[in-house]
Amino acid sequence: MARSLRRVVGASLAGTTLEWYDHFIYGSAAALVFPRLFFPDADPFAATLLSLVTYSVAFVTRPLGAALFGHLGDRHGRKSVLVVTLVLMGAATALIGLLPTYTQVGVLAPLLLALLRFIQGIGLGGEWGGAALLVGEHGDGRRRGVLGALVQIASPLGLLLANGVFSLTTWLIAEDAFFAWGWRVPFLASALLVALGLWIRLQVSESPLFAEMEPEPRTPLREVVTDHRRNLLLAIGSRVGSDTAFYVCNILILVYGTSLGIERQLLLNAVLCGAVTQAAAIPWFGHLADRYGRRPVLMGGAIAAAVWVFAFFPMLGGGSTALVLLAPMLGNFCIAAMWAPLAAYVPELFPTRVRYTGAGLGFQSAGIFGGALAPIICTYLLSAFGTWIPVAVYLTALLALLVACVRAARETAHVELRAIDEPAHA
């Protein structure tokens, strides 16, 4: 890998890891901390549900961030936009660590929490598309799957970092002190991490494919919706199932596991083991996506996950520490197959002139259904039916949608990005 390409991959990986870290520490806090500190007047189930609603806010706003920063990235370049998204996400996360709680300012506390979560969503919405494009448009066309997979590793690394910080904090600090002030530490640490990521990201050059383009007045969002509508819908449908599976495996496990009486520390350790498994598997699946194509890897991961989910909940309830640790490891291995090809597969659906907007909007819009609604729907299904089976059926239906959309999409593993720039229509 040439030195300039290594720098680009490193900058994309570092910055995106920090963005996902910011995202996942909120998810952990929404399951473990916020119900008690920001919604204390509600019963435990309602408080958890309200907390997860604020978690879901970012998934709704991420498409807005994708449209806004995608427009800027397609008109003015990838690099400058990625600097802005990193600062925006980091600032919002650090401010969450400074928020007063409900006992201090009443209803203003959850309102401020939701506002900062809204801003987090805007920043993350613009981040992924630019990072994936910067690597894909710099890199070797024969290795776009592997190079894109290196960007995708940012998600489990961010999860690993976030839960590692939470796990360390809960281990070092007594429970009363943790709820008094210790929960703020992971959020405030984001400011230092963002400063490091910003320094790395400023060292990279602009995408060569974007630099080759002739400037022209255009509205990328309009072009994506009118000329590339079919591929936009396929991108959304190709990701909803993996997003929901990731939530079930790494966030719902904290809610469901605590309801079974499993210790919080064990659950956090299980999520850490799953994140390590996913991070290790992603490059391998990226390699397979280059060798055999994006579609076989994506569909194989979805089918495996549909089988896994019916074993996941019984493993958690089996009373064995080993099974609690193994359940998310198996799940994250399946998720890695659905996750690794996306940084190549989704951008390859769109031409260079609208690639930032199309890829970002397709990827992030799926989060509304897979990330925003999944926590609410899964929590409701568990409460209403008193069993995990409806959750498993719900996830399986979304995985079937993933398979259908991927089957309908064009295989682009061995197509040059410049060839994709030919005019396309819905």
From TrEMBL:
Q: Which residues form the Major facilitator superfamily (MFS) profile domain?
A: 8-410
Q: List, alphabetically, the CDD domains matched.
A: MFS_ShiA_like
The superkingdom of the source organism is Bacteria
Question: What is the topology of this protein in the membrane according to its UniProt annotation?
Answer: Multi-pass membrane protein
TM regions (residue ranges): 81-99, 111-135, 147-174, 180-200, 266-285, 297-316, 322-346, 358-382, 388-409
| One protein family per Pfam | MFS_1
**Which InterPro entries does the entry mention?**
MFS, MFS_dom, MFS_sugar_transport-like, MFS_trans_sf, Sugar_transporter_CS
Location(s), subcellular: Cell membrane
Q: Which UniProt keywords apply?
A: Cell membrane, Membrane, Transmembrane, Transmembrane helix, Transport
Q: Note the PANTHER family from the entry.
A: SHIKIMATE TRANSPORTER
What is the protein name stated in its UniProt record?
A: MFS transporter
Q: Which organism is it from?
A: Nonomuraea insulae
